[in-house]
Amino acid sequence: MRVLVAGGGTAGHVSPLLALADRLVADDTSTRILALGTASGLEARLVPARGYELHEVPRVPLPRRLGADVFRMPARLGAAVTSAGQAIKRIDAEVVVGFGGYVAAPAYLAARRAKVPIVVHEQNSRPGFANRLGARLTRWVAVSFPGTPLRHAVRTGLPLRPEIVGLDRAASREGACASFGLRPELRTLLVVGGSLGAQRLNDVVPTIAADLAERGVQVLHVSGTGKEFAPPRTDCPYVVVPYVEAMELAYAAADLVVGRAGANTVSELTALGLPAVYVPLPIGNGEQRLNAEPVAAAGGGLLVEDARFDTAWLRRFLLPLLDSSDRLAAMGVAAAGFGVLDADRRLADLVRTAVASR
User: Fold this and answer.
1) Which end of the chain has fewer CB within 10 Å, C or N?
2) Is 32 helix (H, G, I), strand (E, B) or coil?
3) In the CATH scheme, what is the homologous superfamily, with its name and number, of domain 2-160+341-356?
4) What is this structure's pTM?
5) pLDDT, tens digit, 9 for 90 and up, residues 127-150
6) At what angle are helices 263-272 and 287-297 packed, to 10 degrees?
7) Radius of gyration of the chain (CA)
8) In which element (H, E) is residue 119 found?
9) Region 166-338: CATH code
10) In the predicted model, what is the mean pLDDT of residues 229-239?
């Protein structure tokens, strides 16, 4: 097949794009992949690093208020659609697969103009503008979470990196703990606020460091680059790192996770059967809360509003959870029941179905 994949700007768009590309090529090494992206997005670094070609298109942000940008947008969008159309012709694409973000809408419009099948994948429970547009132009729509309000939606889950899908947490635990300076015989609380960190988590979790140490719980705290802080001094390790490139190692060391509720985070934790406390980002359109709600409802995690996440909440809810191995185990089983490990295969099958429908 000849496949144009479009998505970029954030890891939430780029990671599943690369996971799908890897699956399609693994299934058939003659498959040709061309990725559509911008010069400023993460895709400009990650796509070539994975060995795929990147076709750059102009970035077309949608204006949030009336102003000069509203009048400039049609010309900008037209230039991006033209560039996307050139990418379709460049490889004679048989299908365009979009993951949302700035480049997806031009890709969908160019595909519609060229009469090329479109496949849409939406990461979050609340879709963005680009994928709402794309879903109106095709019947091949994949979503990560149940209840996502898009026409023709089929839940495939979120395609994950092979390092996550193939992770044996038990077998990897000792080496993972050693890599962070942790002790494998102790329970580990992993705190992670996404790729940029979360200041709220950085401020609140250290306030119960002594309580955690009394229970024999060590902490691996991923603060975010530029948000590092001096770890509290306790009898148990409290390790602060700005960023973790191989998150699978952090997951292998963890017994419980405190984090945000981005689509990647929720999908990875549930696929691995990791219990979690989800603290959705309080800004945006509320998609993080919607991502975590069905997991919490299934018993796979706790959900707490950012404003309520404080020392008192941690002592009332988090510490008792860490005291109960049975509760942690039950939450892990519930999380695994919600997770999807073969999302890359499911989405690849949908792509092949769309191509066969031409």
Assistant:
1) C
2) strand
3) Glycogen Phosphorylase B; (3.40.50.2000)
4) 0.91
5) 988 999 999 999 999 999 999 999
6) 20
7) 21
8) strand 118-122
9) 3.40.50.2000
10) 95
